[in-house]
Amino acid sequence: MYTKENLLDRYLREMTRYMTYEDAKKARGDFCSLVEDRLGEDYDVAQLEELLLRLGSPHNFSTKYRSSSNIFIREKNYRILKILVRILFLILILSTGIYIFISKNSDYMLLLKGVKDIILTLLISSVLSLWIAEKVKDIRIMEKLLKPFEIKDLYISREKFIFKKSKLINLIFYSTVIFLSMHIVSGDLLKRKMLQVVFFLFILRDSNRTSEGEYGKYVTMLSIFCNVLIGVLLVYFLKFDFEFKILRYFYYFIIFTTLVDLYSVILKLRRFYG
Predict the structure, then answer these.
(1) Closest-CA residue to 80 (of 165, 169, 204)
(2) Rounded (5°) CA angle 256-258-261
């Protein structure tokens, strides 16, 4: 049994799922005013259900708040992209400073080449990952607009993904280690390409989780795919010699956290198939 407050909250949550905080706040206010105008202040669950069914999918209302700018990556995903790129540039500065401090090599041309490679890697990984998230969002919204809306759709149980401080620490840690390693192996094409792929997979996994905001089937399957591939690539990467031995232990830790994450998302997969 559900209450009218719970039902309205679920409808609003789905409606504002891909919006920025500012747009979501405005949309919630506008929609609550619409409900009040149609039903008054004293209404019951049955009346609210009837109104929501007449209005249809929550995304019928949300499309009014879609921005026409930034056609490739819009709204919430564009905000995620801007924040992510700023964080990654700060990590680039940090990792470059560490490399200059620990390196005996004073070849500044090689250093600049390493910086350029890392900038290209972080920009391509971030933009491509959020572009994929944007395409997935558009497909999801279109599917929901074409499908007849039912109240039970709002009560499908999915675990929420919240970008907590621990997630940010993990992002800073693996990015710093990978960027530092890219400086060190800048002359080795195979190692550099492997690190670029691993970094892209991390960003693809984390940005799509943040975009979707929950562990649906897509995010769960994508997380499993990325984690397995990251684990395989890093285990192979550990076969190489390391100029700084401590980096090997850092990669052991990254592999361990990736396996823990893989285990947790496999458990979530049971909701869909088991």
Answers:
(1) 204
(2) 110
Distance from C-alpha of 66 to C-alpha of 76, rounded to nearest angstrom: 10
Q: Please give the single-letter amino acid code of residue 73.
A: I
What type of residue is 173?
A: F
Assess contact for 24 and 81: CB atoms under 8 A.
no
Q: Which residue do the tokens 């007849």 mark?
A: 148
Reported pTM: 0.83
228 vs 258: CA distance, rounded Å: 8
- Rounded Cα gap, residues 216 and 136, in angstroms: 12
The residues, any chain, with a CB within 8 Å of residue 230's CB and separated by 6 or more, are: 198, 201, 202, 258
Residue 119, φ and ψ in degrees, nearest 5: -60, -45
Per-residue pLDDT of the chain (274 residues; tens, 9 = 90+): 578 888 888 888 888 877 777 778 888 888 888 888 888 888 888 888 888 888 888 888 776 766 555 567 877 888 899 999 999 999 999 999 999 988 876 678 888 889 999 999 999 999 999 999 988 888 877 877 778 888 887 777 666 666 677 888 999 999 999 999 999 998 788 999 999 999 999 999 999 998 888 777 888 899 999 999 999 999 999 999 988 899 999 999 999 999 999 999 988 877 655 5
Structure tokens at 121: 């890697």
> What are the start-end ranges of the H helices in 17-162?
21-39, 45-55, 58-62, 75-102, 108-146
HEC readout, 95-106: HHHHHHHHCCCC
CA 225/CA 202 separation, integer angstroms: 11
| CA 240/CA 246 separation, integer angstroms | 14
